[in-house]
Each structure stands twice: as C-alpha cells, then as structure tokens.
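Please decode residue identities from the backbone states below.
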C-alpha cells in the first residue's frame, strides 16, 4: 500500500507538463520493442513457472499441440495422430520441416525426452506420467505412447497453454528437471540471442528463417505462428513512469502491463490502443510454505485465511476502478467453469476471528518471512497488505524486498527462514489456466513433487484423478467443487481476487492476439 502511494506520486511528477508528451519517434519496420511485465532472470520454462519465463518460451520453443480460443486442442508440431480403440495406445507423426535453431532436425526422440522432463514438474503432466506404461520412437518422425489405462485428456495435456510442453533438443531435455538448461535452443518462430541478453536491461530475439508456420490462422497458442518482425527487443523498464513515457514517445511499441494509475493518461493519447487480450482475467494469490513453521501447522494457515479481505488487495494493486477487478473467495476464480460462489464461511474477512484462531492454534511467535518484489506493480503491493494484516493479528513478520528475479530464485528454497528460506510469496496467473482441477497447482496436493509451498494432500490428489476420469460433466463438476473447497479449507493457497489487464500498444501495430500470453506472432506494423 505504501509503495503504491509512492508510485502514484512518482508517476504524477514524471508525467506532469507538456514535456512528458512527445511525438512518436521514427519506428523500425523490422524491429518490435516490447516492455515485459518483469525482468527475465530464468530462461528455462520447465524449471520455473514464472509467467515472464513462459512468455519467453513462446518465442523460442514450439509445442506438439496448441489450445485455441475455443479451448480445443489443435495440432502444432504434430501432423497427425492415431489412437487405439481402447484408448491405451497413441501414435504421433511430426510434420515435415521442423528444425531447431542449431540447424538440427527435430526428431521423435527430442519430443519424448522433452515430455519426460516436463511431466516431472507440471501437475497435469504428472497425472499423465502415472498412466504411461512406455514410450518409444518408431522412427525419426513418429513416436508412440502406451498407457496402463485410457487417458481421456491426452490432447488437452499436450496442448496446455499455461506452463506449456515446450520441445527442446534431446541433449538439453536430458537436463535434470530441478536444474536449468544451459542453452536456449528451440524450434519456435524466434531465436534467442544470448550475446545480447542482459538481465535487468535487455532481451533480444531474431526471426528464425527456417521456421515453417502452419497454414491455419493463429488462435491463442495454436495455428500459424507467423513472425513478421525480423527482430524483437525486450526493454526491461521496471519504473512505470519510464515505461509510460517510452510508449507515448514511440520509444517502445508495446507495454505488456501498464500500472492501473496510468491507464487514464494512456487513454488520452491518440497514438495508443488499450486492449484486454486475456478476457479470462488474472487471479492474485498468496502462497504459504507448508514445509516450515509456522505454516506447517494447518491451524496457523487457517488463521491467516480468516483475516484476508480481498478488496484491500485489489485496491492496493488495481486501484479503485471496480470495473477491472472483483473479489473471488474461491480457488476457482469468478468466470471459470467451476466457480460455484463465494465461500464466505471459509473466508469471512474477519480480523477478530483470525486473532481468536491464531491464539488457539499453538502459534508461538515464529518468524514469518514475506519475500516480495519491488519491481512488479501487480504483485508488490500484495505483500504490503499481507505484512500489515499479519501484524494486526499478532504475528512476528519480516518483510524481505528484492527484485522479482530474486523472489523466484529464493522461492525454490525449502530451508528454514534462518537459512534463507521463506514463509509467504504472492503472485498472479491466468484465471483460465488455473480453472482445470488437473493442472491447477493452487489446489493440487503433490507435496515435494508439487509447486512452491509444497502442499501435500492424498485426498486432493484423489479428487483430481476423480475429475480426470469422471464419466460425465456432472461428475466432473462434483469432484471439482469438492477439490476447490478442500484446498481452501487446508489453506493450500489463499485467493486474493481476480482482475483484468489492459495491455497498451502503439496504433501502428496490428494483429494483436488474444490469449493468456503476449504472443509475438501475427503482429506487424502498418
């Protein structure tokens, strides 16, 4: 909250006066300049779930299937597939002309090894892995997966849009899934330029001339991924005022996530388009560390959940315009298929109830360490609100501020806080991406094999499988409702609300794609 007030003041000072509004500078017809949501510190989208890394992945890597805007899986690298009558054997054939950025051909072995590494980290992939009996390359362009039981969502898991199955060379996919790959080599529409990568400043990509896009129109992460720009440069601009000035002056073409306070000012510029490209919205969450005190105690976790008032969090990050955010006291966010109302009994928004619950929980003053970014306006203020809230209910709180890159590195630690660990972090993600009981790491209970925070629940895992193999839609809905309530009761994750982002770009750009990522394909300058 305090940092948000500071941002307002800094923005007002920077943008005041006519000097802040400049003519659009001459723009290159061949280079797109983009300001991403955060600094890119991790380059491996399997190793981390950081959204900025996944967005980077879409430039560099391709996927076997893609999920279109209708939610249907479409072939991407795959030309065709065959499935046995009993659903327990799948054979996939790759399309012609697939080439990696190191000029080696994409082979079936690359796809299988990439799949093998990915299923170790991804919650949806882990369910698939449990059903795989064997997999093998039939030839260089064909591979087969044999299952112990029919897996009805096979194409959906391979097409997953958030935390996608990106294909990389076999030699890199052999890297331990808990470690980052050492090279960024894919077969996607753009090639990463390591010599120009400067964390905190710049990321550069060049069009991969050997890439052969599909003939279909693009739709989310499916269809023809046509790279019209020869070069894309990411400009890391953590200061919102600097990014706003750069966009207005034409120094950048596209700002992924403008600060909500700056939206009215951007709306006045005749040269800028503001657009909601992810119509499902983004959920904001608080994630607690279940491995270490005090949140290894479910009663302490519950005390925090009882106190959370989502309106405080949404106003802190998104401002007072309630048309762009909503409360959503449910781990199935508003607008998603399994949202079944506000679970007010589990989130009564009561500090008094939280104080009483904390007193009865056995909490003994253990330190709570909040790791929080200073360079991410959609996330940073969430930590400020939590800090004040936990102090108000009587907890011993330490606030550790750093850049977002440091936060996503530190959240990997499973050590006690005294040895560099953590207790709480906050983040946001696609509400649509978190709407599936098999893939949402907010509700899944995989423990040590799961997402940061390492919530463990055999019952949650059983409900995810019940949903996956349910006979019909009503049975799926029943399993999803039970899983969502269980995960909130256990305080696996605390939802903080859902909001819309209006991305902003120069009107000289056309072909902006809808979806949960800032896709680079289809864009061109007029």
């Amino acid at each position: 909250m305090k940092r948000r007030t500071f941002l307002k003041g800094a923005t007002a000072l920077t943008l005041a006066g006519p000097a802040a509004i400049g003519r659009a500078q001459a723009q290159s017809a061949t280079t797109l300049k983009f300001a991403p949501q955060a600094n890119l510190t991790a380059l491996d989208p399997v190793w981390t779930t950081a959204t900025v890394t996944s967005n980077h992945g879409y430039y560099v890597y391709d996927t076997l299937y893609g999920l279109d805007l209708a939610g249907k899986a479409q072939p991407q690298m795959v030309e065709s597939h065959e499935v046995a009558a009993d659903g327990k054997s799948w054979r996939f054939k790759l399309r012609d002309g697939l080439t990696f950025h190191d000029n080696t051909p994409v082979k079936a072995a690359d796809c299988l090894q990439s799949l093998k590494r990915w299923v170790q980290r991804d919650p949806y992939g882990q369910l698939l892995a449990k059903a795989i009996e064997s997999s093998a390359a039939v030839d260089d362009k064909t591979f087969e997966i044999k299952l112990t039981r029919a897996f009805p969502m096979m194409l959906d898991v391979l097409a997953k849009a958030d935390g996608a199955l990106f294909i990389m060379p076999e030699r890199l996919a052999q890297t331990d899934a808990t470690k980052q790959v050492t090279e960024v080599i894919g077969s996607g529409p753009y090639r990463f330029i390591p010599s120009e990568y400067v964390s905190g400043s710049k990321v550069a990509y060049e069009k991969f001339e050997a890439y052969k896009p599909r003939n279909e129109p693009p739709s989310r992460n499916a269809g023809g991924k046509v790279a019209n720009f020869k070069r894309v440069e990411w400009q890391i601009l953590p200061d919102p005022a600097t990014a706003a000035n750069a966009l207005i002056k034409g120094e950048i073409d596209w700002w992924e996530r403008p600060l909500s306070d700056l939206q009215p000012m951007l709306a006045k510029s005749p040269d800028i388009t503001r657009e909601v490209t992810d119509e499902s919205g983004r959920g904001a969450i608080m994630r607690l560390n279940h491995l270490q005190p005090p949140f290894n105690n479910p009663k302490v976790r519950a005390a925090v959940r009882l106190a959370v008032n989502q309106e405080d969090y949404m106003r802190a990050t998104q401002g007072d315009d309630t048309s762009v955010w909503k409360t959503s006291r449910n781990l199935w966010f508003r607008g998603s298929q399994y949202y079944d109302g506000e679970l007010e009994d589990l989130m009564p928004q009561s500090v008094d109830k939280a104080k009483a619950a904390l007193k009865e929980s056995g909490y003994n003053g253990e330190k709570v360490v909040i790791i929080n970014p200073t360079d991410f306006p959609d996330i940073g203020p969430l930590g400020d609100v939590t800090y004040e809230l936990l102090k108000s209910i009587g907890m011993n709180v330490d606030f550790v501020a750093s850049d977002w890159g440091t936060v996503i590195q530190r959240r990997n630690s499973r050590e006690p806080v005294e040895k560099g660990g953590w207790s709480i972090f906050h983040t946001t993600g696609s509400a649509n991406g978190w709407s599936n009981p098999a893939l949402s790491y907010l509700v899944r209970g995989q423990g040590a094999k799961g997402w940061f925070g390492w919530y463990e629940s055999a019952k949650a895992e059983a409900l995810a499988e019940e949903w996956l193999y349910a006979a019909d839609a009503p049975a799926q809905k029943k399993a999803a409702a039970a899983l969502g309530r269980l995960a909130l009761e256990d305080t696996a994750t605390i939802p903080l609300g859902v909001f819309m982002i209006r991305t902003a770009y120069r009107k000289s750009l056309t072909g902006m794609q809808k979806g949960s990522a800032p896709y680079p394909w289809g864009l061109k300058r007029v």
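Observation: Residues 298 and 490 are 6 Å apart (CA to CA).
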